[in-house]
Amino acid sequence: MSKVAKPPLTRKRRLKTLSTAMLDELIEEAIVDACDESEQTSGFYSMLEEHLAIPFAIDMLGVEATVERVDLTDDERIVAVCVRGKLRQRISILDLPRPDPQPAGWEWVEAHRRWARRT
User: Fold this and answer.
1) Terminal Cα distance for the chain, rounded
2) Residues 6 or more apart whose Cβ sits within 8 Å of residue 52
């Protein structure tokens, strides 16, 4: 009996996709009591702090780095604090490359991105 050849495995995994309805529910949860854009951003920051599993690895321009935390800047932007060796850089969470695999809580980053496109 001959074996059927399986296609070769690739290292690239398919990223988890979320429905727009699910993202809209997360947006509503983050901004439920917010009165203005500043409070809405703070709501997303709180959700990211609570739900995003940190640290996690990302690939930035072919170089692996680690997101060690998220932070809220003085001008009310959410940034990821990324490190590689002794180097440290803050990158807007909106510009952060999608990690593969995605850490738990990544859906909050996607919800924040969807919300930011609306405002």
Assistant:
1) 62
2) 70, 103, 104, 105, 106, 108, 109
Q: What is the pLDDT of residues 16-62, one digit of tens each?
A: 567 999 999 999 999 999 999 999 999 999 999 999 999 999 999 89
For CA atoms 46, 47, 53, 59, give the dihedral sign. negative
Q: pTM value?
A: 0.82
Q: Which of 83, 91, 80, 86 is nearest to 64 (CA)?
A: 83
Query: Which residue's entry shows tokens 């990544």?
Result: 106
SS3 (DSSP) at 63? strand
Distance CA 91, CA 72 (A): 11
d(CA 30, CA 107): 12
Dump strand ranges (E) for the chain: 56-60, 63-72, 78-84, 87-92
Domain ranges of the chain: 20-118
